[in-house]
């Protein structure tokens, strides 16, 4: 405990905030650099829609289908259509909240029938909550 040297008999209550500001600035820079890297999925040409964005509390499971009909979970995990029934329940069981919900980002140039096949495989895997992702209208 520090005491003043000017003859007063009470303790000095000064807090040095410089280290606190330094730590906060470092954390700000780290979050600014890593935030763009947290985007999920493969780049696909999404169809346009006029609905608003849905609010989500946890990290969502996003299944992407590109124009070559390749299926991805996240950004790099490629799946074959027949593997969906085996692998998707294991992926969803690893989530903290236990919610069995999958969002599909499909390229607008692939046929609707292929998206329906993927949704059918997800339904076979026991996933009843399936959302379709669209891009906002410009």
Q: Report strand %.
A: 15-25%
Q: List low-confidence stretches.
A: none
Count, helices: 3
Helix-and-strand structural type: alpha/beta
- Based on Cα principal axes, name the global outline: elongated
Q: How far is the first residue's CA from the last residue's CA?
A: 62 Å
Helix content: 25-40%
Q: Can you describe what's shown?
A:
- The protein has helices spanning 18-34, 84-93, 112-124, and strands at 48-49, 61-65, 71-73, 77-79, 101-106, 129-132, 135-136.
- It is of the alpha/beta class and 138 residues long.
- Strand 2 and strand 3 form a beta hairpin.
Topology:
Layout: H1 18-34, E1 48-49, E2 61-65, E3 71-73, E4 77-79, H2 84-93, E5 101-106, H3 112-124, E6 129-132, E7 135-136
Parallel strand pairs: 1-7, 2-5, 5-6
Antiparallel strand pairs: 2-3, 3-4
Give keywords.
138 residues; alpha/beta; Nucleotidyltransferase, domain 5; five-stranded mixed beta sheet; two-stranded parallel ribbon; 3 helices; 29% helix
Outline:
The protein has 138 residues and is α/β, with parallel strands linked by helices. It contains 3 helices and 7 strands; from the N terminus they run αββββαβαββ.
């Amino acid at each position: 405990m520090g005491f003043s040297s000017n003859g007063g008999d009470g303790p000095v209550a000064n807090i040095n905030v410089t280290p606190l500001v330094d730590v906060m600035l470092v954390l700000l820079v780290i979050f600014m650099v890593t935030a763009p890297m947290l985007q999920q999925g493969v780049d696909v040409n999404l169809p346009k829609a006029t609905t608003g964005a849905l609010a989500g509390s946890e990290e969502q499971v996003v299944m992407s289908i590109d124009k070559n009909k390749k299926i991805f979970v996240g950004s790099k995990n490629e799946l074959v259509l027949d593997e969906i029934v085996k692998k998707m329940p294991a992926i969803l069981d690893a989530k903290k909240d236990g919610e069995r919900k999958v969002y599909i980002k499909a390229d607008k140039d692939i046929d609707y029938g292929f998206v329906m096949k993927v949704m059918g495989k997800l339904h076979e895997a026991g996933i009843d909550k399936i959302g379709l992702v669209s891009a906002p209208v410009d």
